[in-house]
Amino acid sequence: MIRFNPVLILFSLCAAFVLSIVYLPSQLQFWRPDWSALVILFWVYAAPHRIGVFFSWTVGLFQDVLEGSTLGMNAFAYAVMAYLLVSMYQRFKLFPLIQQSFMVFMLIGIDLMICHLVKSVTGVSASGFVYLYPAITSAAIWPFFYLMMSNLTRKLG
After folding, report:
1. Running along the chain, 157 residues long, what does each successive block of 10 average in pLDDT?
2. Quick one: which H or E segment has residue 32?
3. Cα 104–chain centre separation
4. How far is Cα 80 from Cα 85, in angstroms, rounded to an integer?
5. Residue partners of 72: CB distance under 8 A and separation at least 6
6. d(Cα 107, Cα 124) in Å, to the nearest integer?
7. What is the pLDDT of residue 127?
8. From CA 149, how far away is CA 137, in angstroms rounded?
9. What is the DSSP letter of 30?
10. pLDDT at 66
11. Is residue 108 a contact partner of residue 138, using CB atoms and an 8 Å limit?
12. pLDDT, position 135
């Protein structure tokens, strides 16, 4: 059982914000995992009765300010992603980590599609499916991220 620790939640969010703005070479920029979404998914999975849609919406607003993107874009996308996970978290807990990775790909893909839709309406988006690359890398690191965060919460929680 993963315990709810507000200090650890804030620390993990700060680390996700730092990782989302750290410099990467231009070839790797499109492959950057959506760290904030991974942290949201982990905490919604771990404490769905305490962490949910409003928390995700708030984190999305901070992400919008951090990226300088359209205010509310990430907030809405993260809220939708959290709602989808909250509505199926008991099924999600039964899945093995590989199947959870596929679900993470789907959830973050929906998040990125919402952001791409908003960007295309405002005239800022790129063409093609390049915007989905972060969903692939996020799904690939989900098993390692989940195991690291669950071990960290057991030791510090």
Report:
1. 80 96 91 96 93 96 94 96 95 94 97 94 82 96 96 86
2. none
3. 9
4. 9
5. 60, 61, 64
6. 23
7. 75
8. 17
9. T
10. 95
11. yes
12. 97
pLDDT at 1: 55
CA distance linking residue 137 with residue 129, whole number of Å: 14
Contact 115, 34 (CB under 8 A): no
If phi > 0 it is left, if psi is from -120 to 50 it is alpha, else beta; for residue 68 that is: left
Q: Are 143 and 41 in contact (CB under 8 A)?
A: no
> Interhelix angle for 133-156 vs 97-122, to 10°?
130
Residues 6+ apart with CB under 8 A from 77: 60, 110, 111, 112, 114, 115
Q: Which amino acid is at 41?
A: L
DSSP 87-127: HHHHHHHHS-HHHHHHHHHHHHHHHHHHHHHHHHHHT-PPS
Q: Are 89 and 107 in contact (CB under 8 A)?
A: no
CATH architecture classification, 6-156: Orthogonal Bundle (1.10)
Question: Distance between CA atoms of 7 and 11, rounded to whole angstroms?
Answer: 6
Q: Where are the domains of the chain?
A: 6-156
Q: How many residues does the chain have?
A: 157
6 token code pair = 């507000």
CA triple 80-83-88, angle to 5 deg: 130
